[in-house]
Amino acid sequence: MSSKEDGKEEAPPVTESAERRGRKRDELFVNIIEKISVTFSSTGCVLTSEIDGTIQTKSYLTGNQEIALALSDKLYIGKGGLPNNDYSGSSRMRPVILDDCHFHESVRMDRFDVDRILSLVPPDEEFAVMNYRTTQEFKPPFIINTLIEEAGSLEAEVILKIRAEFPSIITANTVLVQMPLPACTTRVNFDLERGIVEQNADFNESQGRLEWSVEKIVGGSEHSLRAKLKFSQELDGNISKEAGPVSMTFTIPNYNPSRLEVKSVWIAKKTGISNPYRWVRYVTQANSYVAHV
């Protein structure tokens, strides 16, 4: 952002908080929602990865107030305009590269090319300011390991392990792990890891799959599930060919793998509002998160 010496107003800092509904005051909420798609090979290598993101606003401002959003300084649309020397440094300093993005027709773009600032008058309802997509490499939030061992002609054991790769100050919510099982599976006995509250494992017989749900997973932790399978008939060949892939769904607040930031939010033209409350929230969700076995 430019300083006041450059003749441009310095944007005030953004305050992060949970949304407080039902209170009569001027508020503006900005949500950065990213849906990630990752495919892992059977050895754990990332085959494909993609992020579909959106920046949304929800306004409780009095009157038609014009707001401004300042995005990441090192933000590039496509790799064509990226300087050759801009790949160096830590992950936080590396540029954010979007494959493509689309802005709502009401968004003013006159300061975007130089300062990465968007201006708009947000409506009262939830409003998508910007949609974007990136295939830039990012660290997957979860690592999935699957081990399948035959325990006789009519039995097998599955061991699922998931490791949270994000910082310990972040917690993933409503985590669900699913794995299709061989069609001849008749019964599944589970051995749940102790010490995890609000977890459950079930054999969904109608869908023919194992389902393991964990309400909360703290960053940096690792959890496992053992499942003993019983079959109605002998399997032909490798059991791994008839089981899987493993898939996950989850929601991770305060986490954005693309590193795209809304650095500041402010009222561009003040008309009676001195200092409205402004909240910026990041949420990451699984779109398609799949690991082959």
TrEMBL record:
UniProt keyword list: Membrane, Protein transport, Transport
GO cellular component, one term: clathrin adaptor complex
Occurrences of domain MHD (ranges): 25-292
Subcellular location: Endomembrane system
Name of the protein described by the UniProt record: MHD domain-containing protein
Cross-referenced PROSITE patterns: MHD (PS51072)
PANTHER family: AP COMPLEX SUBUNIT MU
An individual GO BP term: protein targeting
CDD domains named among the record's database cross-references: AP-4_Mu4_Cterm
A Pfam family recorded for this sequence: Adap_comp_sub
InterPro entries tied to this protein: Adaptor_comp_med_subunit, AP2_Mu_C_sf, Clathrin_mu, MHD
Keyword hit for Transcription: no
Renumbered residue ranges of the record's region Disordered: 1-21
